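Figure 6 in text form: structure in, sequence out.
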């Protein structure tokens, strides 16, 4: 059981890093359109915040602090979804990539939300 839990965590960390890198690649392309610069900046900030807060939770000094980092990561994932929706709706050139990343952001948000509920004891398996 513990090995499965550790494998899931490690896979999730890798997934968050891959997600951030894919967002950064998209934003690099978005820089070709001056109107998308502010969205690209916000998108990079929010998407990289997800992984950063999950990793930072590892060094928490209490369960309460650990949960707080996951709540912040969830909020950042939700913010990322907003920026991706803006990209999808405002730029046909990047709509399909934004949609793909939006699906990944939704999955990440669901994992984080489920984790928060479980840690708070509001979700039972």
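Output sequence:
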């Amino acid at each position: 059981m513990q090995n499965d839990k550790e494998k899931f965590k490690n896979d999730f960390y890798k997934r968050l890093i891959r997600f951030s890198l894919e967002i950064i690649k998209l934003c690099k392309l978005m820089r070709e359109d001056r109107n998308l610069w502010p969205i690209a900046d916000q998108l990079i900030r929010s998407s990289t915040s997800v992984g950063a807060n999950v990793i930072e939770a590892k060094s928490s000094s209490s369960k309460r602090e650990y949960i707080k980092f996951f709540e912040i990561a969830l909020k950042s994932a939700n913010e990322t979804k907003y920026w991706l929706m803006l990209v999808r709706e405002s730029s046909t050139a990047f709509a399909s990539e934004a949609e793909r990343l939006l699906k990944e952001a939704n999955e990440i948000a669901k994992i984080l939300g489920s984790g928060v509920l479980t840690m708070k004891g509001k979700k039972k398996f």
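Caption detail: The mean pLDDT is 95.
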